[in-house]
Amino acid sequence: MKITAVKSILTCPQRNYIFVKIETDQGVYGWGEASLNWSEFEVMTRLEQISPLLIGQDPTRIQDLWHYLYARTYWMGGSISMAAIAGVDMALWDILGKRAGLPVYQLLGGKSREGVVVYNHAIGSTFEETAEQVAAFVDRGYKVVRVQVGEYGGVGNRPQSYAGERAGGSAYLEPTEYFHAGAYIENVPKLFQYLRDQFGMELELFHDVHGKLTPIQAARLAKNLEPYRLMFLEDPLRPEHRESFRLLRQHTTTPLGMGEIMQSKFDLLPLFQEQLIDYYRLPPVHSGGISEAMKIAALAEPYDIRSAFHGPDDIGPVAQAAAVHVSRAIHNFGVLEWADYNTATHEVVSGISTPRDGLAYPQELPGLGIDVNEGLAAQFPYTRVPTPMVRRIDGTMHVY
Hints:
By secondary structure, the protein is α/β, with parallel strands linked by helices. The protein has helices at about 40-55, 60-70, 80-100, 105, 125-140, 180-200, 215-225, 245-250, 265-275, 285, 290-300, 315-330, 345-350, 375; strands at about 5-10, 15-25, 30-35, 115-125, 145-150, 155, 175-180, 205-210, 235, 255-260, 280, 305, 335, 350, 360, 370, 390.
C-alpha cells in the first residue's frame, strides 16, 4: 500500500476547520484534522509543504512517518507544525483501522472504559443564569460542568471611568473587553458558593481562568476555592509561567489543569515530573495527533495525572473523534471537553458522536468511524473570525 494523494480542506460549516485526507493506491483513504484557531492559513501552508513528502510512502509506517515529518526541518515543533502533523497522523491511523477492520481504539490496546465522561460549559452573565445552565446540563445527563460568570470568567464591559480607548479600530477585532483581576478573584468563590448551595458537593464543577492571573493572584484564588471542591482549576497561569506552578502548588490543595495551548510532551514533562498539575489539557489535534497523545498519556500515568483534552467547537468533529478513541483507550483518562456541532457540520461530517447520559462513545466502525463530504465542505468557505481583544481595567493590553 502506498500513499497517492494528500488533500487539505479548509471549510467553515460552524467554525474554520482543516480536514486532511490521505488516499492510497488500494482505494483506502483516511481522514485527519489540523484545525488551529486564527492560524488556519499558516497550517495550510505547512501541509502544502509536507504533503509531497508523503507521496509513495507506506501509510502503515505511522511512527516512522511521524518522526520524519517532525525532524525533517531544523526548526522542530511549534503549534503550526504540530497541528499539521496531527492531521496527517490521524488520517494514517484511520487508514490502519480500515485496513485492519477495527476501530482505532482497538488498535491502541482496546477500551479501558465503556463511555468517555464529557463536560460542557455553563456561562451566564449572572449567578442565576449560570445555575440555570448547569441545571439544564444535569437534566441532559452531564456529570461534569465548567462554570463561568461572563465570557472567560471575569471579562466585562468598558468601565465608565476609563477614557483612554482610541476611536476606530480594525474590522478584524472584536469589541474590547476589560478584565479586573481583583473583582474577579473575589467573585469566582461567590459563584461556587452559590452553585454548591443549589447542587450540593457531589456534582463535578470546575472553572477556567484562561491564564489571566499572576502567580500570586492565582494562588489566592485557588486557595479561596478549596472549600468548594473543584474538579480542577483550569489554566490558572500562562504556559510561560511553568516554574511558578511550584509556588501555586505550595499554597493550595485545589487540583490544577494545564496545557491546552502548550505544544508537545516536552512542554508538559516538567509539570509531570514534579506533579505540579493533576490534569493535562493538550489535545491530540494540537500535540501531533494520536501517536503523540498516547505517549503523553504514558508519561503522565506514573505521576497519577489524568487527561482533560481541550475540545471546544473551534476543534472540529474529526479531531473530536480522535480524542474519543484515545480517551477510551488510555488508563489515566479524566474528562473530555465537549462541543455540540450545528446541522451544517453534521451534514459535512458523518459519524459524529452524540453523548448519552454524559458519556461519549466512539463509532464501532473501522478507523475513526467518520467521513467528510468534500462537495458539501466546499460550500462552506473560510470565514475570517475577529480576533478577541482583552485589556486590563486600566486599559493596558492583556492576554486573551
